[in-house]
Every structure is written in C-alpha cells, then in structure tokens.
C-alpha cells in the first residue's frame, strides 16, 4: 500500500497515540514536580511521531531511513524511561499503566524496523529522485512481476512440477 500523507501511516498513528498517553500519564499528581523524567518522557515520546513525519516529508529514501532510525531510538528511550519509572516507588500509583505503554513503544519500534528493512531493500531512491522515466520503469517492472506471478499461479496445475523421484523409463512392453 502506498501512503501519500504521514498522517495515514499506521506507525505514525501508534506513535502519536503513545505520545498522547504519555502526556496524560505525566499529568498524574505523582509527577507534580516537573523534572527531568517528565520532560524527557514527553520529548522522547513525541519525537517518535515527529521524526516519522519529518523523514516521510523529506523525499529521499536515505533521509527517511535516517529519521526512522532516530524515531526508533526515541521509542527505545521512551521504553527505558518507563521502565525506570516502574522501579521507583514514587510512581507506584501509575505502575499498572506502564506495561501497556512499554508494549506500545516496543510495537512502534518493531514497525519502524520492519519499514526500514523494507526500504533498504527497495529499488526506489525516494520521491525526490523519481523522474517520469524512473517512475515508468519501476511501474513496468512491478506490473511485469505481478503478471508473471499470476501466470505461474494459473499454469501451476498444467505444467508438471519437478519431483525428486526418478521417472520410469518408457517401454513398448506392457507392465507385468
């Protein structure tokens, strides 16, 4: 599936949800002293969706990959901070909320990694690098591959598949 806006990306939506949930969590009275942990949690969680958006808007695959890795690092940072909060008695009133937030941060990280892996194996250098000719060439190749896959699926039952068993030699004599 092709996305034309970062707001439509499932991973961006999950990252945005994580940031909103972190902001709500840090409004809890146990965070009444606005300190480093609150500020870092808010910044790192918001950084995930922001870096996905910035990378998406850049226009080249290499820039997108760079920002995806930054976003993935922010997801890890967020998860680490949530883990730290789970170890502190001061935050015990919110301990029950932390596992689901850590799971969501880890899910964002996995989604970003899968996307980055697929981009690294892509022939497209990014929207900024696409010309009409490279776009047409890419689309022709994609259509050709899709046609070949469809053709193979349709002829699978017609063309005998190779087996590991040796064939019996053909003879003019009837079987015994």
Topology:
Blueprint: H1 10-25, H2 36-58, H3 61-87, H4 98-120, H5 132-155
Helix pairs in contact: 1-2, 1-4, 2-3, 3-4
Report on the structure:
The structure is a single chain. By secondary structure, the protein is mainly alpha-helical. It folds into two domains: 6-121, Up-down Bundle (de novo design (two linked rop proteins)); 123-152, no CATH class. It has helices spanning 10-25, 36-58, 61-87, 98-120, 132-155. Helix 1 runs antiparallel to helix 4 (98-120). The chain starts with 9 loop residues before the first helix and ends in a 21-residue tail after the last helix.
Q: Which descriptors apply to this entry?
A:
176 residues; mainly alpha; de novo design (two linked rop proteins); 2 domains; 5 helices; elongated
Quick structural summary:
The protein is built from five helices and no strands. By secondary structure, the chain is mainly α.
């Amino acid at each position: 599936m092709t996305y034309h806006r970062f707001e439509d990306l499932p991973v961006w939506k999950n990252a945005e949800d994580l940031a909103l949930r972190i902001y709500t969590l840090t409004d809890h009275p146990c965070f009444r002293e606005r300190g480093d942990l609150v500020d870092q949690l808010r910044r790192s969680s918001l950084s995930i969706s922001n870096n996905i958006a910035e990378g998406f808007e850049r226009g080249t695959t290499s820039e997108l990959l760079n920002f995806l890795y930054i976003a993935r690092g922010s997801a890890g940072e967020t998860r680490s901070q949530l883990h730290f909060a789970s170890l502190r008695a001061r935050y015990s009133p919110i301990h029950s909320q932390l596992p689901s937030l850590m799971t969501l941060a880890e899910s964002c990280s996995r989604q970003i990694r899968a996307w980055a892996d697929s981009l690294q194996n892509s022939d497209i250098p990014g929207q900024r690098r696409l010309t009409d000719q490279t776009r047409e060439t890419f689309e022709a190749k994609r259509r050709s591959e899709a046609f070949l896959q469809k053709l193979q699926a349709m002829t699978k039952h017609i063309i005998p598949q190779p087996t590991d068993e040796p064939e019996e030699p053909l003879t003019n004599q009837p079987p015994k």
